[in-house]
Design goal:
single chain; globular
């Protein structure tokens, strides 16, 4: 059974940090591009960060560049998102996603598997 399970969400004050993790099982995640998406209340889901199969290429949405870092461990089948200098506008449900493809993309339809999400709340 294919699963992506996120963890590490929570509540933090503005300026703080959180580290999210996603554990993949039931498929060979090491050959999939992986990404983090988020969806804030009343807004569409948006791509946040994406990482290549080997972990050597990353993409970030402009609003998180310099604050968030995506990484992966193909031995442990995990994906991580280190979030620093958090802002209230980062408040959202964060989702892990996997794509069998050749590049990063922010198109949700291009992703094959999704997790259930983990909530991140940043207060002022």
């Amino acid at each position: 059974q294919v699963q992506l399970v996120e963890s590490g969400g929570g509540s933090v004050q503005a300026g703080g940090s959180l580290s999210l993790s996603c554990t993949a099982s039931g498929f060979r995640s090491s050959v999939y591009y992986m990404a983090w998406f988020r969806q804030a209340p009343g807004k569409e889901r948006e791509g946040v960060a994406c990482i290549s199969v080997g972990g050597d290429r990353t993409n970030y949405v402009d609003s998180v560049k310099g604050r968030f870092t995506i990484s992966r461990d193909n031995i442990k089948s995990t994906l991580a998102l280190q979030m620093n200098s958090l802002k209230p506008e980062d408040t959202a449900m964060y989702y892990c996603a996997a794509r069998r493809g050749w590049s990063c993309t922010w198109s949700e339809a291009e992703y094959d598997y999704w997790g259930q999400g983990t909530q991140v709340t940043v207060s002022t």
